[in-house]
Amino acid sequence: DWTMAGYRDEAIRKIREQVGDRKVICGLSGGVDSSVAAVLIHEAIGDQLTCVFVDHGLLRLNEAEEVVTMFRDNYNIPLIHADESDLFLGALEGVSDPEVKRKTIGRLFIDVFQRYASGIDGAEFLAQGTLYPDVIESVSFSGGPSVTIKSHHNVGGLPEKMGLKLVEPLRELFKDEVRALGRELGLPDKFIGRHPFPGPGLAIRCPGEITREKLDILRKADAVFIDQIRRHGLYDDIWQAFVAILPVRTVGVMGDGRTYDYACALRAVTSVDGMTADYYPFTHDFLGETATRIINEVKGINRCTYDITSKPPGTIEWE
Ligand code: XMP
């Protein structure tokens, strides 16, 4: 009889067998996948594991603090917090092409990760929270060649470059299975149930050029949207929800003054695995209330739209 407890025990056995008494480095993103991988590996080999959390300055409101608190303080997992926001945001200045953005972030991520990882003496393994859908990420159009829609951000190429062997304990699992495994490992439900968050973070929710000002506005608007979704008890019915800040300012009126601020788009979808998605059918009341809150509470936004594109033909993220 297959159970998640059995899977966990088997995964722990395999990690111990692969790693022995050697050291492992794990790139922690704050997402469910890498977190579950880290906790699983920590159960297997304890302090032979060190986590490196690269903070690229493209995380959501309070996210970095939450990750550090949870892993370092609650789980006692050795964690290096690499705060490199200046480096990433500096390199992204003036960049507006989506693929250039992704590649810039991916390249810097590898550099930074490597710099911190090489400070961990004698590490021989690199752990990743790669899931089955990541393994099959490229999309094949019928009759056509296999096409990669977006260059995904991961530490591809890094293991060979650093002479590290890979530990990928989630490679056979889908997202819902990773969540079940996380619950089995005692991670809090609220954390396990978190929506997926892409590696390039807010960069791909800020189409066009990224500025600190836009990121700041985006973080606040996103927090209000998620708060609305939680208050209405909808969070767990939705695969992913977020705000994108649009690269356009529009005219509005507030009080008796004219405003000229950014427009934003709300995005919320249902999905089974992220490969296809439908937009979430919020009520008009919910949408109206959310737009009012965002415009009242977030300085810098004066217009709010709801993205009703499904995937395909849209993608979930805006870039
Ligand atoms: P798209 O936008 O391609 O996204 O429909 C499908 C799912 O993948 C996530 N996503 C990423 N995840 N690195 C990641 O780890 C990436 O570069 C990346 N790009 C998209 C997206 O958030 C959605 O869940």
TrEMBL record:
<dbReference type="GO" id="GO:0003922">
    <property type="term" value="F:GMP synthase (glutamine-hydrolyzing) activity"/>
</dbReference>
<protein>
    <recommendedName>
        <fullName>GMP synthase [glutamine-hydrolyzing]</fullName>
        <ecNumber>6.3.5.2</ecNumber>
    </recommendedName>
</protein>
<comment type="function">
    <text>Catalyzes the synthesis of GMP from XMP.</text>
</comment>
<keyword id="KW-0436">Ligase</keyword>
<keyword id="KW-0547">Nucleotide-binding</keyword>
<feature type="binding site">
    <location>
        <begin position="29"/>
        <end position="35"/>
    </location>
    <ligand>
        <name>ATP</name>
    </ligand>
</feature>
<keyword id="KW-0332">GMP biosynthesis</keyword>
<keyword id="KW-0315">Glutamine amidotransferase</keyword>
<comment type="subunit">
    <text>Homodimer.</text>
</comment>
<keyword id="KW-0658">Purine biosynthesis</keyword>
<keyword id="KW-0067">ATP-binding</keyword>
<feature type="domain" description="GMPS ATP-PPase">
    <location>
        <begin position="2"/>
        <end position="194"/>
    </location>
</feature>
<comment type="pathway">
    <text>Purine metabolism; GMP biosynthesis; GMP from XMP (L-Gln route): step 1/1.</text>
</comment>
